Every structure is written in structure tokens, then in C-alpha cells.
Amino acid sequence: MKNITTSCLALIAGGAIASPTFAADLVQWHTNSLTYLYGKDFKIDPSIQQTLTFEHASGWAVGDLFLFVDQINFNGKGANDGNDDRTHYGEFSPRLSYAKLSGTNITIGPVIDILLSMTYEFGKGDTEAYLIGPAIDLAIPGFDFFQLNTYLRKSDGGRPGDNVWQITPAWSYTLPVGRSELVIDGYIDWVVDNDENSQGEYHANVHINPQIKYDLGKVLGWKEKVYIGIEYDYWKNKFGIEDGGYVSTELVGSTNQNTASLLLKAHF
């Protein structure tokens, strides 16, 4: 899996080098942002968390790219924190577009593109995973975008969660509100099956993580977008740990997370 992902990224770079004109037009658009989150009632990890997130999204001549890195600061104790007061986690997600690579309009009903979607998950400790699978982009009235990604998960080092399937829709919806707008965007990670080789340690789980945010910068006349709002976080069987199950030999009780965090987000 790691070799497949590396080969696909090399194909992107190789195409850019081979054609100077193509290289000049490689990046079509891009945006970056920083987000601060403060929330309580998290499960497994310490219940109070403050998170600083860097995000990057861009459109390319061959597809698109999304990247985020979280720096998470803990307050209090949890079953899986290892006595650390902080951790980090990130995902690097390139997608190759059939429509862009072929130069063909493939619109079929609401389907406007077919893609090869990849994700590399990384973080502190034993968290590496490689995901790859088919995806489609949909044109749904009212939505800024709507993606439906499917992945086969391959975990590094044989950790639980290897060779299971995941479905990940992602979306953005904008509503005008007075002199500004309300943006509702996010994703759902639905791991639809268990890891049969982990002796029942890894369970099917669903993680629903939307943000609801108001563009304060637009009201104040600022050039860049500055949002205030909340991030909702529901995770059934968090980390694939069965509700009421164990981390190592320690009983953690409920692993069904249901919480919200205050949000401040600035684009640049």
C-alpha cells in the first residue's frame, strides 16, 4: 500500500517535470487555514482538549489535495493518554481525477468526476495507516461540493484496523445570513467492517465531524475569511474500541463520543 501511494504521487510530480507548460498550470487554486478548538467530554483521551489545526486544500491539473495537522493539548486524564499532555495527528489526502487526466466530460446524472482517492494517516505513537480506493464527486443542488470516497485501510505494522473498508463522504454547504454567510461543512468516516485478524480488538465505527461556522470577517469587511462557530464530534466505537471495552487491560466504559467544541478559524 505504501508503494502504491508513493507511485501515484511520483506520477503527479513526473508529469509536471515532463511538461513545463503543464507545470506552470499545475496548481489551479489553493487555500490555507488555522483553527482553534476548545471542547469537553471527549472519550478515551482526556476529556478536555484544546486543538490547533493547520489545513491546506488545493485543486491541481491532475486532481486535488487536502492536508491537515492537529496539535492537541490535553487537560485532565484519560484511559489512553499515556500520561502525555499533548499529541499530534494528521492526514495527507491526494486524489487523482479521471476527468482532468483524460480531458473528458464524464458527467452522468449527479456524478461529475471519478477519482482515485488516497490518504496517509500519521501521528504520535502507533497511528500510521494507508488508505486507497475509488471516489466520485457529485453535483448536488445547494452544495459547494460533495465527495464520496471509499477506501481499503492498510495499517502499518499489523496494528488493529488492517484490511478493512471505509466510506468517507465530505461536503460543504453555504447559507446566506444577513450581511454574511453560514458554512456547514465536514465529513463522515464510516469503517464498515471489523479487522478479523485483530482477535476482536478492532470494531466497525462511525465518526461524524461537521463544523457550523459564521463568517465574521465578511461582516467586518476583512479581506480574509474569519469564522466563529462550533465543531460537532460524534464517534461510535471511537478508535475501533467496542463501547464498554478495554484499552490494553483497562476498562474504559463508553467509547461513544458525543461532544462539541468552540471554534475560531482564519483563512490565509
TrEMBL record:
Residues 1-23 form the signal peptide. Keywords: Signal. Pfam families: Channel_Tsx (PF03502). InterPro entries: Channel_Tsx-like, Channel_Tsx-like_sf. One of its GO terms (cellular component) is cell outer membrane. Coiled coil: none annotated. SUPFAM superfamilies: Tsx-like channel (SSF111364). Belongs to the nucleoside-specific channel-forming outer membrane porin (Tsx) (TC 1.B.10) family. This is Nucleoside-specific channel-forming protein, Tsx-like protein. It comes from Pseudomonas saudimassiliensis.
